[in-house]
Amino acid sequence: xxxxxxxYAPDVPEASLRKLAAELPHLVSIAVQCPxxxxxxxxxxxxxxxxxxxxGLLDRSGxxxxxxxxxxxxDSRARNRQDRVNLLHREVEAATDLDNFGVYISLPxxxxxxxx
Length: 116
Fold this sequence. Notes:
Blueprint: E1 3-8, H1 14-32, E2 49-54, E3 65-70, H2 75-78, H3 81-95, E4 101-106
Parallel strand pairs: 1-2, 3-4
Antiparallel strand pairs: 1-3
Helix pairs in contact: 1-3
């Protein structure tokens, strides 16, 4: 289950953020799918958690939007993580009007549980 944090500049239009929010669950799921956690295209509650946060007064960023994805480490994910982050960047660019953004994928050793 990927956790996604989107940090954005105050001048990013709300329409762009809404489009990003609509597209990210599917795009992130494709980017992190692996044999251990396959993606069947049928997202359920809790499959992808996304949080949006506007940059604060003391935050510094040279980008309009930064998308940080954390997903459980599996060797099959780790072997090609740069390809995965490049794919996600290309797909976000194609699906939205964003042009000054970055994508970061982190694969920590982790565990997850949720209510049914």
